[in-house]
Amino acid sequence: MLPLVGSQVAFTTHPFTNVEVLDCHVNTEANPYSPVASESAPEPHAGQHRWLPTEIVVLYGLAFFYGVSQVFSYSSGTLDLLGGILFAFVLTAWAVADSRRRGNPMVSIVRVLYLLFCPLSTFLYLVGTRGFWGVGWFLLNGVFLYASIAVGLLVMFYLLYFTGHWELMDQAFFEE
Predict the structure, then answer these.
(1) How far is 81 from 69, CA to CA, in rounded Å?
(2) Which of 1, 25, 144, 153 is within CB 3.0–4.6 Å of 67 for a Cys-Cys bond?
(3) Dihedrals φ, ψ of 62, to 5°?
(4) Class of residue 95 by CB neighbours under 10 A (exposed 0-12, middle 13-18, buried 19+)
(5) What is the mean pLDDT of each run of 10 residues along the chain (176 residues)?
(6) Count of CB atoms within 10 A of residue 55's CB?
(7) Which pLDDT belongs to residue 158?
(8) Of 96, 104, 83, which Cα lies nearest the Cα of 55?
């Protein structure tokens, strides 16, 4: 009979009778088929070696393209609503992924509440998971998100300005 994966088979001498006994010890930590090993919770940050989460890259890309879109439609309520909904979904996806990376996944109702109260819940999540440094991360990312919106707006504005495509820009930029 073959031993199980991760098991150790050895002959040992019994201390009282001096008889050699076959000792089969199954190491459940190394055995992938053991129910104990499969039910254990993953280690926080296990297998995660990414420097920057994908959700953060998407968030800053969304902010940049939101700034770009402001050149074409400066005062669009529909665009503002769509941008806010997309920001909320991306921030919720980041928080869900971050909570999984930290080893404390969110339950479904918390995800829904996070989505509904996104700016406040992001602040509370950062403070709850990172302590006082969460306030700094919230403010720092807020400044950089605002800056990426401004950079997107200015890049597209000057690109259209210097190429002479005035007709593509929203006329609200030229009103006094």
Answers:
(1) 13
(2) 153
(3) -65, -40
(4) buried
(5) 50 61 54 48 52 83 90 78 91 91 88 92 92 93 95 89 76 64
(6) 18
(7) 87
(8) 96
Q: 25 in helix, strand or coil?
A: strand
Structure tokens that stand for 123 in this block? 């602040």
Give SS3 for 138. helix
Residue 117, pLDDT score = 93
Contact (CB, 8 A) for 26 and 50: no
Query: From its phi and psi, is residue 41 left (phi > 0), alpha (psi between -120 and 50) or beta?
Result: beta
Nearest CA among 150, 99, 103, 107 for reference residue 128: 99
Can you tell me which residue has the tokens 């971050």? 98
Q: What confidence tens digit (pLDDT) does each residue in 54-74 have?
A: 888 899 999 999 998 888 777
- Give the DSSP H or E segment for 10: strand 7-13
Structure tokens at 96: 């869900």
Task: Provide the residue count of the chain.
Answer: 176
